[in-house]
Amino acid sequence: MFKFLVFILLGFLVSCSTREISPKGNAREYQIGAYLWQQHSGEYHALTYQAYNWAEKLVKLDLQDKHNRKRAVVFDIDETILDNSYGGAREIKNNVPWKESLFADWVKLKEAVAIPGALDFIKFLHKERVAVFYITNRKQDMFQDTYDNLVKVGFPVDKEKLLMMGSDKSKESRREEVLKKYDIILLMGDNLGDFHRAFDVKGNSARNKAVDEMKGQFGEKFIILPNPLYGDWDKDFPYDKAKVEFLKLTP
User: Fold this and answer.
1) Number of helices and strands in the chain (H, E)
2) In terms of pTM, does the model score above 0.85?
3) Domains (ranges, CATH) in the chain?
């Protein structure tokens, strides 16, 4: 009888404990699924190859126009040409919530690897003498580590074309600087802010509306890479609540 009561009591405590941590558990489960998908799924690789294969076709088409203006392609870095999922996976395994200092520590390791398709495409651009600009919202004090990581992976990098974040998180002013001397053929990124100021500092409803308004640009001027791990879209969903609460059951 005593053993039976102990068993019941333990079951009750486990049940209570599960209910108390379930929101955070659900949120972490979402993260784990996202990281597993990026690291292991053939679908993720197929999407990145598809993006870069299509980008190369667009550049080749543009090169058929024999004008004398200098051409450029502008890239974001994180989750566009460099895969940081291994740094985030360490946080998950260590049960550590994300914070900016952890990303800074990860950048210092210079262990990010190339997104599938990115290296071949950028080497193609280099061969065709199309300028490559990297516009990132990594901070200025990450410049050397970022440069070293890109070189380590094999990307051709001109330090003058590696543009870090200053006081303004928006990338618009940096894009405008490039436009002063170059025709931008394509913008490559994983976050809508990589393409146009219309997507800066807005919630998902406004961002979706802007996407609808500029739908003709995607696949023509804007090439977006998949990133389930993080992004401005995620700001609408607090980390201290289970993301499952925000799932819609009807349109």
Assistant:
1) 8, 7
2) yes
3) 45-83+112-226 (3.40.50.1000)
